[in-house]
Amino acid sequence: MDHGGMMATAAPAASATGGMDHGAMPTGESNAPYDAQFIDSMIEHHQGAIDMANQALKEASRPELKTLAQNIITAQEAEIKQMQDWRKAWYPDLAATGGMDMDMGDMEVSGDTTVPFDQRFITAMIAHHEGAIAMAKDAGQKAEHSEIKTLAQAIITAQESEITQMQQWQKEWFGQ
Fold it and tell me: What are 67-83's pLDDT values in tens digits?
């Protein structure tokens, strides 16, 4: 998989629901530093998880999902802050890169109300986490800064654990 592409001024398209459609980052020139592309992509990706988790805090019926959602918000807001600090320190004059050319996974919970919200949230968050894990594995191989590699490994560890938990809940709660 080639995740090196980027676009200097790309902006994600607005979806029909008025939110942002971030299913895949745009492609383009790839002369921006890899670490800057990773940071720009992962900040956007984490914001998608935070948005879905905030929705779960309001709409989930199971307390386990609300706890997971709060944990996602807390962890990913801290990681966003860290990446923003690195971005300012390492690339103070670099314009937004448009990010990495890769599938980000689901960036919003399905609006199909024939399926219970808890089930839709789990399905969306598993796909979303899988996108983050793919990005983090790529960064583990290609990042220049050791801080990015350390963050990438932490993302892999945390999100693989959360996926395992959510898959267990899918089986227990929904027979999937």
Answer: 999 999 999 999 999 99
Cα 78 from Cα 46, distance rounded (Å):
10
Q: Give yes or no for a contact between 46 and 80, defined as CB atoms under 8 angstroms apart.
A: yes
Nearest to 63 by CA among 173, 171, 176: 173
Closest by Cα among 131, 138, 135, 136 to 23: 131
Q: What tokens were used for 108?
A: 């919003």
- Give alpha helix (H) positions in 25-145: 34-59, 63-90, 117-142
* Predicted TM-score (pTM) of this structure: 0.81
Q: Tell me the sheet residues that pair with 14.
A: 20
Q: Say if residues 15 and 85 touch (Cβ distance below 8 Å).
A: no
Angle between the N-to-C axes of helices 63-90 and 117-142, in degrees from 0 to 180, rounded to the nearest 10: 30
Give the amino acid at 139. Answer: A
Is 114 exposed, middle or buried, given 0-12, 13-18 or 19+ CB atoms closer than 10 A?
exposed
Mean pLDDT of the chain: 86
CATH superfamily of 34-174: Ferritin, core subunit, four-helix bundle (1.20.1260.10)
